[in-house]
Amino acid sequence: MERVLDVYKRPYDKDYPVICMDESPKQLIEEAKLSIGMRPGYEARVDYEYIRNGVVNIFMANEPLKGKRLVEVTEFKTKKEWAMFIKGIADEHYPRAKRITLVMDNYNTHGASAFYETFRPEEAKRLWDRFEFVYTPKHGSWLNMAEIELHVLNGQCLNRHIPTMVKIKEEVEAWENNRNNKKSKINWQFTNKQARVKLKRLYPSIYN
Fold it and tell me: Which domains does the chain have, with CATH numbers?
């Protein structure tokens, strides 16, 4: 936890950007019957029946100090999808960065093996060397600022029935462009000093 909080204290540096990454499933839901829109004297009405059309995965990466986020919707969330998403961060969005610090959780797809199972060894090593990986502790995913962005995405964009992957991609792209244009940043305030007070029970007791 303290390592993550130290990373968050770093000043903005375009050569060494700090990026937070997370992922979340989204169920595809289709209405079984058409909703009835709102009209004078009547509220909108939605039937309780719906059709499940499967689940997609949403990758989120955001650079809190710059107000930039990258979102990608994939059919699966295997090692290959994660490796391809990380490659996009390195080569398409931050090609000139000297080294990228990536904060994420300890999910079993988030490791070197994902690169070596997806790319040739030379390419896997090149990508691995582009990053400094910083993992949040177990049960400490709340330390990942990408969770905040996912919460905003779900509240502003995905808080309704969406039936297809194509539609979700369209909605997410529009949300991403709008939020990036606003350069919405995250002002992280939680520090190691505060952690040692508020989370005192997590620290071992030392007696002289």
Answer: 2-32+58-182 (3.30.420.10)
